[in-house]
Amino acid sequence: MGEHPEDDFADYFRIHYPRLLAFVKRRVDDHETAQDICSESFLLAWKILGCECADSASWLYVTARNLIGTEYRRRAQKDRLILAIGRISASSPDPCEHADLEIAMEGLHPDDRAAIVLTYWIGLSAAEAAILCGCSEGAMWKRLSRARAQLRNFLSEA
User: Fold this and answer.
1) I need a surface site. Which of 32, 99, 114, 148 has the fewest CB within 10 A?
2) Span 99-108, mean pLDDT?
3) Alpha-carbon span 151 to 153, nearest angstrom
4) pLDDT tens across 45-92, in order?
5) Closest Cα partner for 36 from 81, 79, 76, 74?
6) Which pTM does this prediction carry?
7) What is the 3-state secondary structure (H, E, C) of the chain?
8) Residue 49 near residue 9 (C-beta atoms within 8 A)
């Protein structure tokens, strides 16, 4: 690399980004996800800018391929969770038996209601429910805590 690594990296980006994006788009079939994977690949290249592998286009493509694999695994896990929800729906509680709870659930924010349904009725872990809802596990725990408090308040008043 030259005296100005930022300039060298800008050239590296300009030369390789369009081809890398096309490579990734053919594999993930989603433009936004492809852009994210390309950005992550170049970010990793930037972090090791002084290394010889950052000068190599093949290193960039291997990195993108690994990130594509991670995306495939994430999608597969989400698909498995959606299928599990469909199979478990028959075991949902009888609505007549839990009328007060159903009314209380309607008063919850949709995100909090989803947290309760996914974890308590369907039986997913907080981590699995977080993946399905597109949030962090910590955020899922916060939603569960908030929803339980609201349900306790409503049911104690009823």
Assistant:
1) 32
2) 77
3) 5
4) 888 765 655 567 888 899 999 999 988 888 887 777 666 655 555 455
5) 74
6) 0.55
7) CCCCHHHHHHHHHHHHHHHHHHHHHHHHCCHHHHHHHHHHHHHHHHHCCCCHHHHCHHHHHHHHHHHHHHHHHHHHHHHHHHHHHHHHHHHCCCCCCCHHHHHHHHCCCHHHHHHHHHHHHCCCCHHHHHHHHCCCHHHHHHHHHHHHHHHHHHHHHC
8) yes
Residue written as token pair 């060298």: 8
Q: Within 10 Å of residue 106's Cβ, how many Cβ atoms?
A: 9
Q: pLDDT tens digits for 11-55?
A: 888 999 999 999 999 999 889 999 999 999 998 888 876 565 556
